[in-house]
Fold each of these.
Amino acid sequence: MNPALTPTNRRFPTIGDLVHRFSLEAPVRTPDGAGGALRSFALVSEVWGDLRALGGSERLGADRLEGRIAHAIWLRYRDGLTPDFRLRLGNRIFEIRAIINHDGRQRFLECHCEEFVT
């Protein structure tokens, strides 16, 4: 196997590929006073990443067309990142669905994300 390829034959990024500056946001739960909680997000850090579109779909929901775009976002390895986090690029929001550390060497993380477009 070529060490520059992942098990799914996608090329690992180089540092020069990490050209997008993402805001990494963690969930924050705040009690709403009625026994529930409000979920918001707080900035954890700014990270450089490589954005790769994987595909998309559309569906009709709530009387309007909703689009979903699947992305793979590659980041430098960081400990503690979970699918509860999200990434923001300007006003685009990417919800993390899965995180893959392909070679176990803790160099890069491939985050499978969804972006919702209305």
Amino acid sequence: MKIDISSRNHKVSESTKEYAAEKVSRLSRYFEGVHKCEVILQEEANRNRVELIVSAALGNTFVAHEAHEDMYAAIDLALDKMEKQLRRFKEKLKGHRARAADQAAPPGPAGEHGEPLDSYDDVVRRMDEY
């Protein structure tokens, strides 16, 4: 996964960049289709804002914003939001696929009225009785 970390209005320390990169790299645990993550760190008055933009498979883009007094806390809170979005998206994909598979699956062996079909041996025995 490609990770881009940028800042607006201030210079970000290397430790903050490393912290953000380490945390963002874990997003692939929640959805394997994550291709790129852009982290934008911004300082406003006494608030720090974090914006995460994740590009994933199937052309989907996810965005999470968070503001907090502490930059590290803002990163963590934004990541929590992103993890939730990715988890929900993955569950949604699985749900659609599971429903489609259930609809496409042929019914099990059953007769006209839903009763189970006789085995081959039962049919041969009945034929011998006639």
